[in-house]
Every structure is written in structure tokens, then in C-alpha cells.
Amino acid sequence: MHSDLNELVKMDERVARQTAEVVDQVRAGDLTRSTPCADWDLGELLAHMTAQHHGFAAAAAGRGEDPVAWQHPQLGDDPAATYRASVDAVVAAFAVDGLDEQLFAVPDFGPDVRLPAVQAVSAHLVDYIVHGWDVARSLDVPFEPDADAVRAALDVAEQIPDGPERREPGSPFAPAVPVSDGAAPLRRLLALLGRDPDA
């Protein structure tokens, strides 16, 4: 895991803004498209991504226990604008002084878990590289996230257990997909987290 919080925050901002560039290409008629997330169409995926940005922003401010902060929003008539506003919110929240002193309450990790900022930002970074790819794959458009960010996310993904719990309902990741050792970092990251890079 990358230990420099300031560098992580910068990488996370670059990736979040790159996902917004992909989401800018979404039109209302695209929201029912399928995605690599089997349980979600594109509209549901975007609602999840938007909610997670707001939730992580709340957690950075010490309000992660509030379930309202993590609720899926209505995307409205301009889903891309709604999403971009959530990106701005989390970027601003992660840019505050003293972030390294904050413990993050993130419901996905359990009701009593409090993550140090480095772990929380790392989790956010992994999530948005993968979900950015999900959106791009749904739209059939390119997505080439920041290379340094991908390498940092890969370091995190290599530490996530690939056990039977990944087959349980509600698991954030499907079982890992085989990929060659010499595969590019993004392909290895996706495969480790249960995405088929060639699907």
C-alpha cells in the first residue's frame, strides 16, 4: 500500500476526474445498459458511484456513520453533472488539512471499523479505477487511468483475500479471474478483483 497520503490524494483526484470524463459521455438512453457489475445497470452503477463519493466525503469530515451520507441519489435529468458534483465533493474533502488524523467510518468495512486515511483513500482509489473501467466498458469507450494510480491500486488489490466469501451475495468483488503474470497492471488489477479484462 502506498504510504504517502499526499501522493495518494493526488492520484485519487486524477482518477476521479478521469471517471468524470467517461461519465460525461453518458446520455439518458444509456442508463439501462448492462455493466460488468452483474447486479447493476449503468444508471444503478452511477448512483452507487455518486453515493460513494458523497459517503467518503462525509467520512473524511468525521460523518461516515450517518447512513444518509451513503444513500443512492436521484441522478436527475443530467446524470453526468450530478456525478461530476460528487467528484468535486470528494476531491475537496480529501484536500483538507489534517486528513491524516481522521479515522474514516465506511459502512462497507463494518459498523465498528475506523480506517486510517491512507487505507480509506486507497480503497476509494481502487474502487474508482475499477468502476471507471466498468462505465467505459458499458459505453464501449476507452478508459486509461493514471498509470501511477493503477500501480498503487494493484498493490492494494494484491492484499485482498480471494476466498469463498467472494461468492457470497453482496460481496464487493467476484472471484479473481486468471491472467498472465506479464499482463499490464490495469489488466492484472481488474482480474484480481473479479473482472474479465477481455469481456
TrEMBL record:
SUPFAM superfamilies: DinB/YfiT-like putative metalloenzymes. Residues 159-180 are annotated as: Disordered. Pfam families: MDMPI_N. Residues 15-136 form the Mycothiol-dependent maleylpyruvate isomerase metal-binding domain. Gene3D superfamilies: dinb family like domain. It comes from the Bacteria. GO terms for molecular function: metal ion binding. This is Uncharacterized protein (TIGR03086 family). It comes from Haloactinopolyspora alba.
